[in-house]
Each structure stands twice: as C-alpha cells, then as structure tokens.
Design a protein that fits this description.
Elements lengths: L4 H9 L12 E12 L2 E9 L10 E2 L2 E3 L7 H13 L6 E6 L3 E2 L5 E10 L13 E8 H4 L5 E8 L2 E10 L2 E4 H15 L3
Parallel strand pairs: 1-7
Antiparallel strand pairs: 1-2, 1-4, 2-3, 2-8, 5-7, 6-7, 9-10, 10-11
Length: about 190
C-alpha cells in the first residue's frame, strides 16, 4: 500500500488518540509536517536555538503555546508553524492528530497535529530567535529500526530515559521522539 496523504488520514481516523488532562500544564500544539517528494514522504523538523526559554538546542516539530485567541489546537499548530517557518496555514492540509503528551522536563501538554504540506516554499523563513534550522528526514530512514535507541537525560537533579532517534549526527529525543514512536507504530501496523 502506497503511503499517501489519504492513507495517513485514514490511519489516523481509524484510531482514537489518547487525550490527557492539561490541568496545571501549559497547553501547546505542534505540527507534524509531512512533505512528499514524488512518492517519498519526509517529516520536517526544527532545531531550536540555544536562547529559547524551554528545550534549548533540541530537535522538535514546529509548535508552541495556545494563545487565548486560538479557536482550537489545530489553529495553534498552524499559527506556530507559520510564525516559526513562514509556512502559510493555507499550504497545509490537516490529516489528523496523534495522542497527547506531557513533557517531563517542562510543564507542557502537547497535542500533535499531522499535516500534509502541499506547497513547499523555496526556502523557510525562520523565526531566528526560536529556530536555528529546519530540515527534512525521509520517512523510510525514520522507519529503519537501526536508528532507534534510548537516551538518558538529567534535568534539575532528575534522571530519566526516553526513546531516541540518531540520524546523520542529529539526536531526536524527548517528547518529539515519543510522538515519532507513536506515529511510526501507526504506520508500521498499516498492512
């Protein structure tokens, strides 16, 4: 079965995402941007700057806090992707959502929204105080189990582990890696 935007939409619609209470948490949404080059899907990631308030230097999906004027979390994810990357919301077709996540090293409640970027600009217009870089990873690379592992973290005296992906010298860990595990598990079970 070809992995098309329609396939992703169907897979997401067939599964009820886990919803978690956002009590005492900062509500945020991220866009999981999918870009097709021919028949090959890629995921778009951002590398955060070292000067942002939370998760400095980490690899993430574009996103951020829900503003009081945002009608829903889809709007939040699309607005934030526009602010961080210059990606117009009209260039994104929302395919569905993944399960909620609670970050362990901050107080965020994240809702990931999967979207098909159907028009890619010639270059991304990065919000320089938040985003150091934007880059794409082929989905076939992310589905390769040899790049998956575990990352041990320490934060404010606490220790923990998280799934991790190592790709071309980059480390994707934390909530972003947990969202990836959820998404890739959905894709692996599609047959």
């Amino acid at each position: 079965m070809a992995l098309t935007p329609e396939t992703i939409r169907r897979l997401l619609s067939e599964r009820e995402p886990r919803t978690l209470s956002a009590e005492d948490r900062l509500v945020a949404a991220v866009l999981v941007p999918m870009i097709w080059h021919g028949e090959e899907p890629h995921l778009l990631f951002t590398q955060r700057t070292e000067t942002v308030r939370h998760h400095q230097g980490q690899i993430s999906f574009p996103g951020g806090h829900r503003d009081p004027g945002d009608p829903d979390l889809i709007h939040t994810a699309l607005r934030e992707a526009h602010e961080e990357l210059g990606l117009p919301p009209s260039d994104v077709e929302v395919l569905g959502r993944l399960s909620d996540y609670l970050t362990r090293t901050s107080i965020h409640h994240l809702t990931p929204i999967v979207g098909h970027v159907h028009r890619v600009p010639g270059r991304w217009v990065l919000q320089e105080d938040e985003v150091a870089e934007a880059f794409e990873v082929p989905l076939t690379d992310l589905l390769d189990p040899s790049i998956e592992g575990i990352y041990e973290w320490t934060w404010e005296g606490r220790r923990g582990t998280t799934p991790a992906f190592r790709w071309q010298g980059r480390l994707i860990w934390g909530a972003t890696a947990e969202m990836l595990v959820d998404f890739l598990g959905l894709l692996r079970g599609r047959g």
